[in-house]
């Protein structure tokens, strides 16, 4: 293999693919990145055996070929170089890097030892706006469980029917749901791993993609654009019927300025750290009162003006869960709906679709 590329393009591609590299893995090859010429371009690949990414960049290719090199060393080296042309040449299992000021040789591993990204037999495929996709994924992501003992909850549930795709996530203490319009893909019901979602969001934002193609098989999902392909395994199993905990009615609904609420919650959380982030919300007439205290720290009470409809209420919630929910609501005014002290609390935008919401389970006092 012999070719030349621009440092800027190579550095960007390495930053994208190197995030998947696991240097502590028992298989040394998984600490490497695969470089190979493909369709007149240079393609970089990395995988952790659950997720794989391929990134193509423009290159002037003199000789075709491939080689696998240590990801960290190669990434840091390229990142340190000035924005100029870089020449790459593979000789046996070594990669030579040349610029006007530098000549380096990196010991690699034969490309034949690198795990192959399989060609998938796609059953469903559609192209979707990245703006609406990222909005949906970011809205529900904070509710994904990080507890590996219940793997079914460690991903985002996705179900599509009649041109509407529902995204949902829950860790049993909170729940988030967001619906968007999609091309009509019926009978789609999958669970996408948390780490896969994170990488998809990063790729879309880094490359300013306006749309992305989604391909699905029985056990994998592929997100692809013109130059980037991310392949991931899906989580096996049936997602629990979370709709059973969605309240059908509310006795109290308040409208409140989001920024005022977030600021008050951040102050309240300073006093609730030793109390598992537990705070008390008291809804009285046209005010929301937030109380938090810690035995060793002290006590704080914040009072915020709010538009209240319904009965006075008191409920204990996790402050961090509320802040996470508010962070992903794109509206200056939010709605909080409460049924009773021991019933789920629903947080949503005051203007956007009622199908998009966060639910937080109450804490016993």
Protein model, in words:
By secondary structure, the chain is of the alpha+beta class. The chain folds into 3 domains: 2-113, DNA Polymerase III, Chain A, domain 2 (Roll), CATH 3.10.150.10; 124-243, Roll (DNA Polymerase III, Chain A, domain 2), CATH 3.10.150; 246-360, DNA Polymerase III, subunit A, domain 2 (DNA Polymerase III, Chain A, domain 2). It is 19% helix and 43% strand. The chain contains 6 helices and 26 strands. The chain has helices spanning 7-17, 71-80, 130-141, 194-206, 258-271, 319-327, and strands at 2-6, 32-38, 41-47, 51-58, 60-63, 66-70, 85-91, 94-98, 103-107, 124-129, 155-161, 164-170, 174-181, 188-193, 211-216, 220-224, 228-233, 252-257, 278-284, 287-294, 298-305, 307-310, 313-318, 333-338, 345-349, 357-360. The strands form 4 sheets. The protein has a 9-stranded antiparallel β-sheet. The radius of gyration is 25 Å and the shape is elongated. The mean pLDDT is 93.
Brief synopsis:
With 365 residues, the chain is α+β, with helices and mostly antiparallel strands.
From the spread of the alpha carbons, the general shape counts as: elongated
Beta-strand proportion: 35-45%
Summed over residues and divided by their number, the pLDDT gives a mean of 93
Strand order in space, largest sheet = 14-11-12-13-26-25-24-18-22
Number of helices: 6
CATH architecture call of the largest domain: Roll
Rg measurement, Å: 25 Å
CATH fold-level topology of the largest domain: DNA Polymerase III, Chain A, domain 2
Give the helix/strand class: alpha+beta
**Poorly predicted ranges:** none
Assign the CATH superfamily of the largest domain.
Answer: DNA Polymerase III, subunit A, domain 2
Instruction: Quickly count the domains.
Output: 3
